[in-house]
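Q: Now give one record:
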Amino acid sequence: MKVLKLMLKNTLRHKLRTALTIVGISVAVVAFGFLRTVVTAWYAGVQASSPNRLITRNAVSFIFPLPLAYRDKIARIPGVESDQREAFLRERNACIVGADLAQQYNFKLGDVIPIEGDIYPGKWEFVVRAIYQPRDKTVDGTQMWFHWQYLDERMKQDMPGRAGEVGWYLIRIHNPEDAGRISEELDALFLNSRAETKTETEAAFQQGFIQGTGLIIQLLNFLSFVIIGIIMLVLGNTMIMSARERTKEYAVLKTLGFSGGRLTTLLAGESLIISALGAGLGIALSYPVVELFSLMVPKSWFPIFYIEPVTIVLAGGSAIVVGVLAALFPIQRALKTSIVDGLRFVG
């Protein structure tokens, strides 16, 4: 108990320096948490992918279409449960929108959404007939779903050459372990056809969208851990200064019978108190910072943007580990300095 009181008194001896160190650590923890959240948000689609879903797309690129006639052939592959999900209402131009999208544009049931087509030119009108609520934070709430038939009927009238085409097929399979076999059978089925296919798991398909930004993600990931090094430098500097100033005090404590273990506990405890306070403040500030960012940027950038529990564990755990590491040099100095040299020290 006396050692704990001594730790607290040492921590508060230089209040301004301690406060600045805690603020520096908390800022670094906020930066770490924010960068890690950006990285996890980028991979959210991959992590939320289902293992029993496959995506069959054009082998050249997902931007090229596939014939609608592939649907029945895909359904006959052993192990395939379905190749589409019926989520349409009675009206041809009805649509379902996510709650986040509805909130962003103030959509309500019955509203008409006019859209100017780009890939599919022309003016389109969709009626909001349902708004889905994401199951949890890992579900994208910015999607819009509508009848493929509505699109195809317009294509038959305006661009007959593009009628009967789809973007890709979403396939549910019975056993995720059969994903490799079913993928090979599907692609072999359309080999040497006018539209060869590439079938992959939903996770691999999602991963393909972020391959072009892989270097940026790796850089952000690297920077997030560089911040841990910055935390160690900030805290280490404070502890070294404190240990240097208290060289005579440690010599006196040794004279009074303080063992090396007690001195180690004293120094490590002070470092851990500072790092824990900084980590706690940083974690507390991370939530409003991330929430503010999610409100400022369009939902289309990061449909899923929240702090994952593993990010908090990494931030807090790293700060504590840094607290221990930052105390190593001061501890070594205090233990190696003899009582005579310590009492003689001027600094």
